[in-house]
Amino acid sequence: MSTSLFSNTPTVTVLDNRGLTVRDNAYYRHPDSPDVTSERITRHQYDARGFLTQSTDPRLNEAGLVNFSFLTDLAGNVLRTHGVDNGITVALNDAAGRPFMTVSNIGTADDGTEDASQAMTRTWQYEGVSLPGRPVGITEQVSGEAARITERFVWAGNSPEEKALNLAGQCVSHYDTAGLMQTDSVALTGVPLSVTRRLLKDADNPDIVADWQGTDASVRNTLPGDGGFTTLTTTDATGAVLTTTDAQGNRQRMAYDVAGLLSGRWLTLKDGTEQVIVKSLTYSAAGQKLRGEHGNGVVTTYEYEPQTQRLVGIKTERPAGHAAGAKVLQDLRYEYDPVGNVLKISNDAEETRFWRNQKVVPENRYTCDSLYRLVSATGREMANAGRQGCNLPSATIPLPADSSAYTNYTRTYTYDSAGNLTQISHSAPATGNNYTTDITVSDRSNRGVLSTLTENPSGVDALFTAGGQQKQLQPGQNLVWTPRNELLKVTPVVRDGSTDDRESYRYDGGSQRCLKVSVQNTGSSTQTQRTLYLPGLELRTTVSGGKETESLEVITVGEAGCAQVRVLHWTAGRPAELTGDQTRYSYDNLTGSSGLELDGDGNIISMEEYYPYGGTAVLTARSQTGADYKTVRYSGKERDATGLYYYGYRYYQPWAGRWLGADPAGTADGLNLFRMVRNNPVSMKDNDGRVTEWLDLAYPHKSFNVVALMYKNNPMLKLYHRIFTQETKKILDEAEVNESSLKKLKPNKRQKTSRDMKYTKTKLKNYAAHAGFLNVPSGSGETPRFKSGFVNLPGSLSNKNTFPGVRLIDEKVKRRFEEYSPEKLKESTKWRPETSLGYYHVENVDIFISEIKKLYAASGSELHEVVERRIRNHLASNNNILPRMAGIAGLHAEVQALNHIISMTDTEASVASKLSSSYIYTQRLVGARNEDFPACHNCSGIINGLENIMTGRVEGHTRLIRRKSI
């Protein structure tokens, strides 16, 4: 890729005299016309108080339209949001700042007036004033229908029985849209030890809606079906998970190294013997995976670029001495541009082939425009591949041994100025597999559909609900949505005078899918396939003609290195071609897509390659039956029979490169709510359907605007901010009470007594800040975890008592920073530390870290290896020079909260999942007490990953930072 394409194409942010962003200017060039540059301007408007009122993208601005408009109250809380993609939403809080009522799914009529025919009103009910004010119920009412209580919360009391199970203050019964989730016991660290899921009676019927009316719990408990599915967990003293036993009695066991990272995993099927899933995992000093050996004897090694630490190689092989013979099964090599865009992927384990006078190399090459959007891709596909829609291509069986299986292809992508993918052009000249897929985009929004549904831009909006959910998948295939904008039902086949085929879904209170039912009519009989999703387990059954023909337990072991492991255990109806209790190791690529599947003996089950936006280019398998049981594919997500991929909060249609519905996170990922991973699917990934992340291990900081949207889209965050504020007030009140009692004592007695008090005015000055966190797991079997009480640890930067390993920088030295970082200054003239408040130099990092560990140990905790690594990285990225105003890096309250969150995880892979669903709050204990305290320079540099700081960062860290390697 020519670097001249990106020359003089900066992103320019224009500020008004108040420092508010009023324009974002981007400069677009296409590789086919590098001399032509066009300016793309995104505009923002604010009211007199500085609150955002409008945002407009380049395309709609030309049409005189606005993407989003906001109406705020005096405190800046958004009362009304009008988005062209997701409709109108009104949100009101009560006097305590808790969510009180929202009205969503309000559309706009042709004459511009509001259309509330699809509106859904949601109200929250809370405990009385004598209690903590926790939610006890949620009521929802769709326009024209009766109100329903869709969720109820029951909190444990303070009885000896509840205390014995550590349930005091916990939500023990959550009645939600799927049924009842019960928490039966909790560890001291807050990890649920026993949870039970009960589904609604007739949950398979999509027309059944939860309604938890009445105050009599005995009546409510008759609504879920008989029996339940209980998951058990054991932990160590730090909260790390040691074993899990799923609802069918299958037991998983984990072991960890001295750094707390996963080192081994075992599985014992019910009434079976223990088998090894992960033999060993080896990590670098930086915590990156270097080598993994699985229970099938296959070894995966990882290679990183020294300068950037980007992953450049994943090699999976059967080593010498393996029972099936030594063989390199997959050897993926990655090449990047300086920014981190993937330019080339090659598989050195595959051979170069020749067919019809063309050379077919096992590699993919990618080209981006100046906005980092993918515009062309080349690779190989099966020679018998045709145009793909919602159906998978036929697998090549058995595994190909000749050279006629593959041919070259080229795909090009076209976008409009708002980032909507409008055309996919496919070309494979050797086979004549040439076609174009057109997407019609609305002239009033970013809603878009395949041109087979309509070619008229003005007719696109009619194919969406008021909330921005697509109403047809293909012509004649209707989509039905819940009032919460969850996909309820797909009708793939419509029959006149007969029952339609359907696939329906049911979700829990967190909008996570817990049940899928597919009904197909075949002549005179009906076949029903049912999948129930539980923690670590999927229960799949097939009933045909009223008789159960298959019962399958899929034990989901989860990630193990760069592999996902699933064990298929049939209790009835096992296919004759497959062995019982089949273990399937799925080896992923950089984007998490499942490319290579091996069995428990290390033999290949299937191999699959993908087009950039998710279609299947190559699919080979040793048997069709084995290929049929592969459900996890592109991006590591489940592919439904509809062809849609389920990501967690949204469904994705790979043939169009678009989401099926508007982003539930609002504008957290941009003004276009349907754009997939910012149109760069080979360098970016979306884990759950809400926010895009770069794949080169660098993550953007959360800005204040993003935080505001997170509060808006997740009322629980606002609720727990209030609870955290109350916890801070308790600390302040306790200090006041203690001070009053100390004043009554004589000096000697006062000094001795104050030492035994946790909070006094003097101690608050040293503590300075109070932090806490909320973890909201995405799994349906877990309950939210909230913990507060973290305060700053002592660390002096005075001349008389300087922190170990540190040398203070005096005024004379400040003017000569070259002696500390001559190479950095030589590389970039932009790097100049701000010296007005004074800095210190960490001269001996090991001594510095050692003292931090001692302080953590003295506080009753242990500095986690991951947090230590982050502190070291923060020091390195700042050339070991830190501002004195920010204190000692790693000792502040919010970093301790981060340390506790990471210490609760059971595997390195689960760290990312835990952090992405964690929210950190910090407030002041001195000065403007009980007010939110933005994270300082050091804390922002250490808490720099997936976790969310809900109380802000210092000004220099509020912008979205691409990566420190630029």
From TrEMBL:
**Pfam families in the cross-refs:** TTc_toxin_rep (PF18807), YwqJ-deaminase (PF14431)
**Positions of transmembrane segments:** none
**NCBIfam families, A to Z:** Rhs_assc_core, YD_repeat_2x
UniProt xrefs under PANTHER family:
PROTEIN RHSA-RELATED, PTHR32305
Q: What is this protein called?
A: RHS repeat protein
UniProt lineage: Bacteria, Pseudomonadati, Pseudomonadota, Gammaproteobacteria, Enterobacterales
